[in-house]
Amino acid sequence: MTERLYHADSYLTGFEATLLDTDVAGQRLYLDRTAFYPTSGGQPFDRGALHPAGGGAPLSVVDVVDEGERIAHVLAEPQPGLAGGIQLSGSIDWARRFDHMQQHSGQHLLSAVFHEQLGCATLSVHFGVESSTIDLDVASLSPEQLETVEQRANAVVWENRELTLSSEDAQEVSGLRKASARSGALRIVSIAGLDRSACGGTHVRRTGEIGVIALRKLERVRKSVRVEFLCGGRAARRARAEFELLSRLSAQLSTSPAELPGVMETRLEELQRVDKRSRELAQRLAELEARELYARAAASGPAGSAVIHWQRTPGGALAELRALAQCYMVQPRAVFVAALEQPPSLLVAVAEDSGKDAAALLRSALAAAGGRGGGNARLAQGSAPSLAGLELALGTLRSHLSSASHDSSR
Ligand SMILES: [Zn+2]
Q1: What's the 375 CA to ligand 1 centre distance in angstroms?
Q2: DSSP state letter for 353
Q3: Which domain holds residue 19?
Q4: C-alpha pair distances (Å), 293 with each of 309, 331, 335
Q5: Number of domains composing the chain
């Protein structure tokens, strides 16, 4: 049985204890008493160290587990040499503990104010590393309601009300915000004039120690609403981080944080206009380029046969070549073949009057090379497994197209 010193005094950061037992590996230590809080009721465990009496390296505690009667102190490294009976002095990582106290007491206060102001019950609570959340039994909350609760919660903080602990019998207890399913003696945490809750966690002595309470994201979770909140040090650190973020963003746009939304809106509109113009110009360029390529191919090939343009590109995107292909293939007897070396891929586009089928041409060329692709009679594209495969496919395509143009010239 471990005596839980944190129940009587949340501010105890150091204590003396006797080692009663360890697990076989010497990694879980059981003491007669402890100020280390084990994960329970949503509140995360304490970290800290156990110092063997008479010297020796401090043993770092990386987890604390409530095993019912006993509390296990899990060490970072197993200590097989440790024997029961030795004296240890424990020290708690106070910054971490006090942060947990601010969030946990802040949650009691917030849950009470949500109940008082809006009549919503707290369904569950989660204390996270970055922020904490409360799930409320309500279908939706408006930003105005959230603001009302936030203002009232902070007013209670500023009133610096007392938090007190009492032990009361479950059968006789009254006035709890949420009924407890436990029997026997209940540990009641009260906020003067506001709240009474059964809880085993560690709490601050006065609401002023919670510091500012900031409500943040709202999220619908099944039939409830999840409210994210930050208390005390976390709220201050987040405000600092977000100020720096806003400053960086506004510096990039040469404006002030307050002007940022307006400037962003103007910039986004500009961007949309430029984007539209750029697409128009790209289309116009593709048309001109296609016409030029067509004229060159027509001049070099025999009259009356297919006007074939062969193109080879070291790298890039097939999508860019598609625009060119689409402009090329609208011209009489046009055949457009583009090969991309990296990644090895092939695009075939043909005019309707060319007498050819782009998908069939591509399929037969890639089949020989072990590649894959598809499309329709006018435009098809695919990929080859390697550069050698691409060469093979191009070779096949060349022989098909030359025999075909030979046919048509007959
Ligand atoms: Zn609690």
Answers
A1: 63
A2: G
A3: 3-92
A4: 7, 11, 11
A5: 3
d(CA 149, CA 111): 10
The tokens of 295 are what?
């004229």
| Cα separation, 134 vs 170, whole angstroms | 25
Q: Is 18 helix (H, G, I), strand (E, B) or coil?
A: strand
Q: Which of 92, 115, 139 is the last residue of a domain?
A: 92
Which residue in 92, 88, 102 sits closest to 13, CA to CA?
A: 92
User: Which residues, other chains included, contact 110 with Cβ-Cβ below 8 Å and sequence gap of 6+?
Assistant: 134, 149, 153, 213, 215, 227, 229
What long-range pairs does 291-298 form, CB within 8 A, spacing at least 24? 291/327, 291/331, 293/324, 293/328, 294/328, 294/331, 294/334
Interval between CA 49 and ligand 1 midpoint (Å): 25
Q: Let me know whether 311 and 194 are in one domain.
A: no
Residues 40 and 121 in one domain: no
Cβ-Cβ contacts under 8 Å for 155 (sequence gap 6 or more): none
pLDDT per position as a tens digit, 215-257:
999 999 989 999 999 999 999 999 999 999 999 999 999 999 9
- 69-84: pLDDT as tens digits: 999 999 999 998 888 8
Asked if the structure places residue 219 within a domain, the reply is yes
267 assigned to some structural domain: no
41 Cα–ligand 1 center, Å: 6
CA of 103 relative to ligand 1 center, distance in Å: 10
The two structure tokens encoding residue 115: 């109940």
Helix (H, G, I), strand (E, B) or coil at 380: strand
Residue 291 lies in a domain: yes
300 plus 283 within the same structural domain: yes
